[in-house]
UniProtKB/TrEMBL annotation:
UniProt GO MF annotations: metallopeptidase activity
Keywords: Signal
Signal peptide: 1-24
Superkingdom in the source lineage: Eukaryota
Protein name: Uncharacterized protein
Record organism: Mycena indigotica
Amino acid sequence: MRTIAHSVVTFLLSFSLPSPPLSTSPSLDLSSLGLSSVNIDSSIQAVSVHILAGTPPDPPNGNFDDEKCSPAQVTAIRNGIADARNMAAGAIELLKPKDMKKSNGFFWIFGGSTVDPAVIAKHFSFVLRLGTANEIMSTEDYKNSKTDLIFTCIPPTAPKATSVYANTQNIGRQKSVLNLIRLSPLGLANTESYTVAAARVKALGKIEAGFPNKQVGTVSGPVPPIAFTIVHEVQHAHPLMDDPGRDFLVDEKVLDAQGVLRRAYGFQQIMQLDLPKKQRNPQNFAFFAMLAASNPEIFAPNCFIGPAPLGPAPLIAGRAWVQKPLGPDTCRATVPGACAACKKIIKGIPGDVKLPNFEPDSM
């Protein structure tokens, strides 16, 4: 996570997802994941969710009240929140089957059979704590409140506003006095649901299909739907966590081909992280939730090659982890197409979404 003036931030892809609002909390039995005690009913959460709305002041005040959202942006954020909750609920359901953690897909996204799905599901459950957001006209009354989370809209005139996707800050970090999830013009540029994006990924067979190129001002780039961004940003949002000291996740780094450490926001980057980092990188959660909707077959129980899921081979080309089969084909998955999909991703899930200039030092 990068330090941005007054904040600890996460710059990430944004899938603006307009889906029908959830009228009730997702009905999920989490006992099989050891999460039966986790409260996922947003109606009784202590956290209040707000959207800063209205007309931005002209001239700007030089504070976060400059980041007021237009009516269209308010609608996009409301839909994105509802969509993110559905996205997280789908991911939790996919994590339930016994031996799912042995699948090749789970290996590439989260590290394989040594990883506890309950830990992963817990982080998705934080997304379910996002309730219905009300509109506010100022952030003044919410300073130093640990139970209020505010969505804001970064104006296009803000420094680097067109080169980032989102930014999260929390009370007490970098002298912050507000809990904010800030969405940029680029982050709000794609207002389709993640289900639409996932359907394209499924139909076209490539992850890029879920990230259409959008142009904001003079900048264009791949933009996911808002739910994808929200799933990621929630992993940085203290008010939604059981214990921020333990549950807060940072954007992990991976070496690129030139030997430079980069934050792992791209699809191939998240698969190149080492095992502990895969479990701590918010973007891994967002991509898993997308693939849970588009290609659940790659996470089918017992869908792996060899007597154990996959084993690391020596580093090749100096950087990327390359995997190899440990034995004969042992795929016993009954999900249609799962065994073929399992074999297909033995060296990684194909396709890529690159996010250049996604993480500026200041804003």
